[in-house]
Amino acid sequence: MKVKICGITDVEAAIAAVECGADAIGFVFAESKRRVQPDRAKEIVSELPEYVLKVGVFVNETIEEIENIANNVGLTHIQLHGDEPASFSKSLSLPVIKALSLQNSDGLETIMNYPCEYLLLDGPKGKYRGGNGTAFDWKSINSDNFMGKKVILAGGLTEENVEEGIRLIAPFMVDVSSGVETDGKKDLKKIQSFIDMAKSKLIGGK
């Protein structure tokens, strides 16, 4: 099972996450308490191995600004977490992760044909589009309907429930942010525990 640690804002947490086994690191460039400035993100990316995915999270940003940040920072993937139309996604030069905020399965069918390499299933919208620490009803989702898309499970994941999420959704990757934090900061022990659990052979990880 692949793991993305999102909402990274400093080099120490990024390096620690990769050393713990993270496959992807997420940087939030939208309104959020975890928002990071492009120059800081560029500094962090410069310390990461080439094989690690570097994902930029954007919400209703212009194509020009996304491309500018992606090129400057050294991103490998773009995560669209807003109301971007299909034509917007097709215009981007990097692989796209399209996020969908869910309460249950409502709205899932409408996004299945969205042009993207990955489909990220997130919890309900809160103050921000993502990172609210709330899960959707996993049991309402039929993973047989993903139409071959690589699915990333996000929203309210912790080391305590990631096993159930993987079992019910069978995602390509799991994505965590608030679930590996203590008092709003990335907790290296929680990152290690989460990754260990997600990659456990007991739940089909490797």
From TrEMBL:
Signal peptide: none annotated. The keyword Amino-acid biosynthesis applies. Residues 3-196 form the N-(5'phosphoribosyl) anthranilate isomerase (PRAI) domain. Its EC number is 5.3.1.24. SUPFAM superfamilies: Ribulose-phoshate binding barrel. Pathway: Amino-acid biosynthesis; L-tryptophan biosynthesis; L-tryptophan from chorismate: step 3/5. The keyword Translocase does not apply. It is an enzyme of class 5 (isomerase). It holds the Pfam family PRAI. It catalyses: N-(5-phospho-beta-D-ribosyl)anthranilate = 1-(2-carboxyphenylamino)-1-deoxy-D-ribulose 5-phosphate. Keywords: Amino-acid biosynthesis, Aromatic amino acid biosynthesis, Isomerase, Tryptophan biosynthesis. CDD domains: PRAI. One of its GO terms (molecular function) is phosphoribosylanthranilate isomerase activity. HAMAP family: PRAI. PANTHER family: N-(5'-PHOSPHORIBOSYL)ANTHRANILATE ISOMERASE. Belongs to the TrpF family. This is N-(5'-phosphoribosyl)anthranilate isomerase. It comes from Neobacillus pocheonensis.
